Amino acid sequence: MTSVQALTAMLKEMEARIQALGSDMQKIKKQIRLLMEENDKLREELARAYGQAGDSTPARGGLKNLWDLYQQGFHICNVHFGRIRTTECLFCEAFWDREREGGR
């Protein structure tokens, strides 16, 4: 194989890899969009459950709903609200401490 043929073969191989990477990137972007949409919906549901969606009065049972969500592994603090917890969260714990003390 001549050096020109070798370079041509290398270019074709490189082009195929670039196309494959582009395809993978499009799949990842689509998955990210879907996850972001799902995250937005979950945040809206949590906000509604807590009574923050448009009105200033807490929804009936909002604290119980928040506690249930926290027990299911979601953050309920304002720092990470709606994200999945992998460990205990000091901010969420501080929120519960304030609620136990009377909402100060």
TrEMBL record:
Alphabetical UniProt keywords: Coiled coil, Cytoplasm, DNA replication, DNA replication inhibitor, Metal-binding, Zinc
Record carries keyword Zinc: yes
One annotated GO biological process: negative regulation of DNA replication
Coiled coil regions in record: 4-52
GO molecular function, one term: metal ion binding
Pfam families: YabA (PF06156)
Protein name, per record: Initiation-control protein YabA
Organism taxonomic ancestry: Bacteria, Bacillati, Bacillota, Clostridia, Eubacteriales
